[in-house]
Every structure is written in structure tokens, then in C-alpha cells.
Design goal:
This protein is mostly beta strands. It folds into two domains: 80 residues, OB fold (Dihydrolipoamide Acetyltransferase, E2P), CATH 2.40.50; 105 residues, no CATH class. Helix content is 6%, strand content 41%. Strands 8, 9, 10, 11, 12, 13, 14, 15, 16 and 17 form a ten-stranded mixed β-sheet that branches. A five-stranded mixed β-sheet has the order 1-2-3-6-5, with no helix packed on it. A two-stranded antiparallel sheet has the order 4-7. Strand 9 and strand 10 form a beta hairpin. It starts with a strand and ends with a strand.
């Protein structure tokens, strides 16, 4: 479903094709996956998983340990993947208030949740009702939604200048973080990837 950059390896997100559960994969020791982990976007695996040993509290409820006996069984094309998502999930189609229970806030340079309003999940799909426009910020790629919501891009896709309205996006909330001991810890909104026909 998604593969994103982390300081200590990669974050691979998946979807259970039987019940639509969104999961974030850890290894069978409960640790983040190494960059050499095999899971790529569109690959379908037969695998078993359980709640991760180092599972985090809400909103990061998707953390799962993958048992080592997994096996890749097929590769979905992008249209097949989009069809599976739409079959399993009621994807919000609208403004940024339509995701993460409407609890996102914004500053001049980022979109985030605060400890006062925490959604029950940290991963979702979204079809925005306006395009996302690329910009650079301190050497990193960000996208702007509605001209006022900055969103960091953390995926491995080659960034494009504009992601059209209505494109299927995979969004996530980063770990709780604060730049200092004064500012409250926040989970910042991230764009993990997009899926275009």
C-alpha cells in the first residue's frame, strides 16, 4: 500500500484484503523494518501478524508485527489496487476536514494534531477536493492543499508538481514530536503516496 522514509529504516503500510484493516508493518521482533525489507507498493502477501510488541498509543493503532513465514503471491496493478481500496474502505472525498475526524490544525508551515484532539487512527485514504501543489522547504518536499495546509511528502515516488483533485492519496500522522521542551508535542500530517490511473 505504501512505503515511506524513516530515520531508522522504512515504514511499510498495508491493507488486509479480507476486512480492510489498515496496518503498519514491523518485523517479528516488533522493530521498524530495515530498508532492505521486501514489501513494495502493490504487492500482495500471504502473511500472519499480531499487535506489535512496541505498539504505540492512539492515534498509532496500526502497528503490527509480521511473522517471518510470509510469502508474496501476486502484484496488483494500480487500477486493481484502487478497486480494492474502494471495495474495502469508504474513502473521504472532500476538504482536509474530512480526514482524521476533523481534528487537524495548521501552522504557517505544517498541518498537525495536538494532544487536545486525538483521532482514533493515524492512517487513512483521501480524495481531496482541490489539487495538492508541490513546493520546497528546507530541502524537503512539501505539498500545499487549499493554499494554507502544508503537508510533508515522505514517500519514495518521484515528486510531481501537482496532484490533481480526486486523486487517491494515502495519508499518515508522524510520531509525536516537539522541536524543544517548550512547544507541545504534535503528530504532523504526511503524504505517503498517491495512486493515479
Amino acid at each position: 500500500m505504501s512505503r515511506t522514509r524513516m530515520k531508522n529504516g522504512v515504514c511499510c503500510g498495508g491493507i488486509n484484503l479480507e476486512n480492510g484493516e489498515l496496518i503498519r508493518l514491523h518485523d517479528h521482533f516488533g522493530k521498524n523494518l530495515a530498508e532492505s525489507a521486501p514489501f513494495q507498493i502493490g504487492e500482495v502477501y500471504d502473511l500472519n501478524y499480531r499487535n506489535a510488541l512496541h505498539a504505540r498509543p492512539i492515534p498509532h493503532v496500526e502497528d503490527k508485527e509480521v511473522m517471518p513465514d510470509f510469502q508474496m503471491i501476486r502484484q496488483l496493478s494500480t487500477p486493481e489496487f484502487i478497486n480494492e481500496v474502494d471495495r474495502l474502505i469508504d474513502v473521504p472525498n472532500g476538504g482536509i476536514e474530512s480526514i482524521f475526524e476533523g481534528k487537524l490544525r495548521r501552522s504557517a508551515y505544517a498541518t498537525y494534531i495536538s494532544p487536545e484532539a486525538v483521532p482514533q487512527h493515524s492512517v487513512c485514504f483521501w480524495r481531496p477536493n482541490e489539487p495538492l501543489v508541490k513546493s520546497g522547504f528546507l530541502g524537503k518536499t512539501r505539498y500545499w492543499f487549499g493554499g494554507c495546509h502544508a503537508i510533508s511528502f515522505v514517500g519514495f515516488q518521484e515528486p510531481v508538481d501537482l496532484i490533481p483533485a480526486g486523486t487517491l492519496l494515502r495519508m499518515s500522522l508522524a510520531n509525536w514530536w516537539s522541536p524543544d521542551d517548550i512547544t507541545e508535542k504534535r503528530c504532523y500530517l504526511q503524504l505517503s503516496g498517491w495512486y493515479s490511473l
